[in-house]
């Protein structure tokens, strides 16, 4: 009887852990969303129930039914770019409010060491590779409308559902760790368009292209 009770308790714990309303960390406070498009948002919640999303820029209600595996996805329309701060509420049995959202251009900064190299440069005991002029640019980098999401590295042989990381605003404290290539691109883009720019920073020096491809796509290249 004890074993049976423990088994039932574990099932209940697992059920409630999976059923807890959540949103991918990519969609968190301080994020930038792509302008004039339909942005896909996803997360987990109680299966069979409905998740409701309401963005403040339109106050339109979007809903999606949660799948049996606890996952949900939906697309919401975004307006033209602006420096106005918005928020989005995600609701089921509780409410998650994502604040301080800007609408603008969002780009992915991915690649090897030339994309990974931070503004502060690569520094080791043997060599110091500084970025030319970076010290002045870092000191003058305070900019609420340039934001980076730094994807935490994770090596795995299977497809991952979760992403770890957080959005930060460009400043002398944060910019020194941003990809130099991505930061200068973001700054140039903002100078030309005068809109917010978000960079998803996901690079890994020395990584092979196969590491970034799905198992299905690799079937077309059997020699790889």
Report on the architecture of this protein.
This protein is an alpha+beta fold and 224 residues long. It has a single domain, classed as Immunoglobulins (Immunoglobulin-like, Sandwich). The chain has 5 helices and 13 strands. It has helices at 2-19, 113-116, 134-139, 180-193, 215-218, and strands spanning 22-23, 32-34, 38-44, 50-55, 62-65, 71-77, 82-91, 95-111, 122-123, 128-129, 143-151, 165-170, 197-203. Strands 2, 4, 5, 7, 8, 11, 12 and 13 form an 8-stranded mixed sheet that branches. Strands 1-3-6 form a 3-stranded antiparallel sheet, with no helix packed on it. A two-stranded antiparallel ribbon has the order 9-10. The longest helix is centred in the N-terminal third of the chain and has 18 residues, at 2-19. It is globular. The N and C termini lie far apart (54 Å).
Short description:
The protein has 224 residues and is an alpha+beta fold.
What topology does this entry show?
Blueprint: H1 2-19, E1 22-23, E2 32-34, E3 38-44, E4 50-55, E5 62-65, E6 71-77, E7 82-91, E8 95-111, H2 113-116, E9 122-123, E10 128-129, H3 134-139, E11 143-151, E12 165-170, H4 180-193, E13 197-203, H5 215-218
Parallel strand pairs: 2-8, 8-13, 11-13
Antiparallel strand pairs: 1-3, 3-6, 4-5, 4-7, 7-8, 9-10, 11-12
